[in-house]
Structures are given as C-alpha cells and as structure tokens.
Structure prediction request, 166 residues.
Amino acid sequence: MATSPSIIVACSENRVIGRAGKLPWRIAEDWEYFKAKTARSTVIVGRIGFESWKSILDDGRQAIVITHDQSLARTGVRVATSLRSALDLAKAEARATFICGGQRIFEEAINLPAVQRLFLTLVHATVEGDRYFPEWRQAFPRVIQKRDSADENFRYTFYECARAGC
Prediction:
C-alpha cells in the first residue's frame, strides 16, 4: 500500500524556489539529499521541472508529469492533466510519492489534507527569483526533524514537517 504523498522542496527565506526555470543556487548536499529521498519513489512534477531534470528516472524513480502535452509520456513517465489526477495515478503504486513542484503545483498541494509531510530545505538567504513556495508554517506546523548545515556559499536547514495531529 502506498504512503501518503509528501512535498519536497528547497526554498530561500523569502520563499524563492526558482529563477528563469532553474534553481537559484547549487547546493551539493541538498541535491544529494533530494536524490536519496526520492530514489525508488514516484515523483510528481510540472512540465518545466520535468524538462530541466535530466536524471529524473535515475535511481528507480517513476515520474508523473502534470501537463496537457501527452507526447511526454514514455516508459517510466506518465502524464496527468491535474494534481488530483496525478495523485490518483500515484495511489496505485506501492511506493512513496513526492510532489516536486513547481509553484502552481505546490500552491495546490499545500492545501490538500492527503499531503501529510513536508521535506523542506530552507536556504538561509534572500535571493531573487520568479517562482515561489507558498507560506507553509500554518499548513505544516509540526517539526519532526531538523538538521542545520552549510557549504561555502549558504547556510541551510533540512526540515521534516507534518500537519498538526499527524
């Protein structure tokens, strides 16, 4: 039986998640964490994220891309036209499901009670960007795990958060 879907994201203090279709930072530890956490899982991602994530199917991942472009479907990649239909497709899988963005998908997912966990890398910086993660603190108030870290450019904190009562 599949577990409840989770959100996984890295954002800055001002909630930026992207700039011009790319991440506004390169943090090796966060990328390794993300790859390890999503290995052998189903990942739900928007078209832009899918097209920029060249290694999406590495490490046994299955992808569900939210788009109207059916030409993106192939082995290991399914297409859904909405987050709800993507979650329905993922429900049949006996694997963890991670919602990986982008902005509009996160805005919808954060309000879905079925999404029980948030895996957040909070980059302790204010950066310029054009894509944002919604305010999460009210939706996921309970901190289950927290680990601080840093590289030569940024300080950041890895959080696992849950909805109240979970």
